Amino acid sequence: MKKFAVMFTVLFVLSMAVTVFAQEAAPAPEAAPAVETAPAAVPAAEVKAGDAKIPELLMKAYEKMTADVTFSMEVKAKMNNQEFVTKTKAYFKDAKHYRMDSEVAGQKTRMVIDGDVAWNYMEAANMLMTMPVPPSPTDLKKDINYTEGKDGENVTFTFTDDATKMKVVTTINPKDNLIVKMNTFNEKEELVSEMNYTDWKFEKIGDEMFKKPEGAQEMQMPAQPAPTK
User: How far apart are CA 89 and CA 94, in angstroms?
Assistant: First the structure.
């Protein structure tokens, strides 16, 4: 269960990180006209629900995508009625050691999680900013609620955050145990981000992939202000 919790955290980080990158690199509204997209909905044909017992198909897919593998993601994120496309190359040694190189609106970033160290590198500014490491398994609920469904020949698993009501829908090709796409929906069931996975390569990922760029200026992520009463 702990191993799954780590992988689930990684997948949730993947679904949100590219949205953060897009927000940081996005041009002013007048420089990027809105792109109209068709309304999206959470896949239908939901057939059953589950909790702490994680489906074998989902376990195999998560294990496969977080162990000595590289893959590409094209992410479409919608913010402020604008759509941004992010292209990302991911390198996974394991669920606690991975790197994501992304480009959005002409800006290149690199996010690295290396055990108990995490940082984000902005190429144009040659600046590296340390950031909190994603939550450990002990910070997650032991019971993970999900709904299983179908999308054509593929299988879907929908996870809902109780607090925010946001949903992450993971679609898996059961023939090769690979994730096809992962979509995030807000509390109104509006599509927030759509991630499509391609170019899978299973090869050894060395520690050199996680080295900090030489000469980069290092900064600490600003502390979040305390909530006001």
Answer: 15
What local confidence, expressed as pLDDT, does residue 174 receive? 93
Residues 6+ apart with CB under 8 A from 123: 107, 108, 109, 110
All domains in the chain, ordered by first residue: 2-33+41-209 (2.50.20.10)
Residue 20 structure tokens: 């953060």
CA distances from 206 to 30, 62, 88, 223 (A): 43, 20, 19, 32
CA–CA distance, 71 with 181 (Å, rounded to integer): 12
User: What values do phi and psi take at 190, rounded to 5?
Assistant: -90, 140
Tokens of residue 172, six digits = 């898996």
Residue with tokens 């698993």: 157
Nearest in space to 215 (alpha carbons), one of 89, 125, 131? 125
Question: Residue 31 and residue 38: Cα distance in Å, rounded?
Answer: 22
3-state SS of the chain: helix, strand, coil percent to 5?
20, 45, 40
89, 9 in Cβ contact below 8 A?
no
pLDDT in tens, 178-216: 999 999 999 999 888 999 999 999 999 999 999 999 999
Distance CA 187, CA 191 (A): 10
Q: In degrees rounded to 5, what are phi and psi of residue 113?
A: -115, 115
Residue 27 Cα to chain centre, angstroms: 22
